[in-house]
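Good day; I would like, with your permission, to put a structural problem before you. What I wish to show you is a protein chain and, alongside it, a tokenised description of its three-dimensional fold. Here, with my thanks, is the record as I have it:
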Amino acid sequence: MSAEPTRTRPRFPSSYGIAAGTEGMLDWSWAEERLAASRNYWIVTAREDGSPHAAPVWGLWYDGGVVFGTAPDSRKAVNLRRDRRACVHLESGDEVVIIEGLAENTHFDEDMADLYAAKYDFRPDTGPGWWRVEPRVALVWLESDYPSTATRFRF
């Protein structure tokens, strides 16, 4: 990504108690650290009838997007070929990072495979079946201080 995203408060109902000012909002670097360190990423896609499909995958935070592999005939891949909209979130409900964006097929090269092998002690094939989701919107917060830290990023 070339530019820093715009940081605002999420547009949640007032009953959620989100702070009005900028004090306590998290930086994008906080989210990127968690995206890079995450072992598992939950990928959410939509089936043809609009119903959601969620599945955990291994992947990388690489060059401003989440990169993951899946078999071409997997539910995720079938859904993404029809509708590129995707949501990715991390496992933690205590340090929340949720990104929404469009998935695209991507080339998984040797450098990425090296990073993947270092992270998972497993070297994947660099052939087809790799996807990248670059965020358009991200929501982040610390559960322990939710009203103050709730932050929305637009890219």
